[in-house]
Design brief:
Length: 95
C-alpha cells in the first residue's frame, strides 16, 4: 500500500504569511481530500514561501517572483497526484 502524498508549505514568519499558508492548505485539502495524505505548514524566515510535494518543489516565491495563483497551484498538484481528475471552473481551458 503506497503512502499518500505529503505537501509542504514553507512560509516566512517575519513576513506574517501564516494566514496565506493556512488558506492555501485549506484550499488544497478541500480540493484533494482523498488524494493528499497531509499538508504541513513549515515556519521559516527570509521571505520564503515555497510549496513542495513529496520533496519536489512546485513553487518558490523567490524563484518565480511572486505568489502562485491558486488555480495554477491546484493544476500543478492535480497533475502529479490525480492527472485524470477535473477541477471544474479552476481547470485549464480546453486547448
Amino acid at each position: 500500500m503506497s503512502r499518500a502524498p505529503r505537501l509542504e508549505i514553507e512560509y516566512c514568519t517575519q513576513c506574517r504569511w501564516l494566514m496565506r499558508a493556512a488558506w492555501t492548505a485549506q484550499e488544497l485539502l478541500t480540493t484533494f481530500p482523498k488524494e493528499l495524505g497531509e499538508v504541513a505548514l513549515v515556519p521559516s524566515t527570509g521571505g520564503i514561501f515555497d510549496i513542495s510535494l513529496d520533496g519536489e518543489m512546485l513553487w518558490s516565491r523567490k524563484a518565480e517572483g511572486g505568489f502562485i495563483e491558486l488555480p495554477l497551484l491546484k493544476q500543478l498538484v492535480r497533475d502529479r497526484i490525480a492527472p485524470d481528475r477535473q477541477l471544474g471552473h479552476s481547470d485549464r481551458k480546453a486547448e
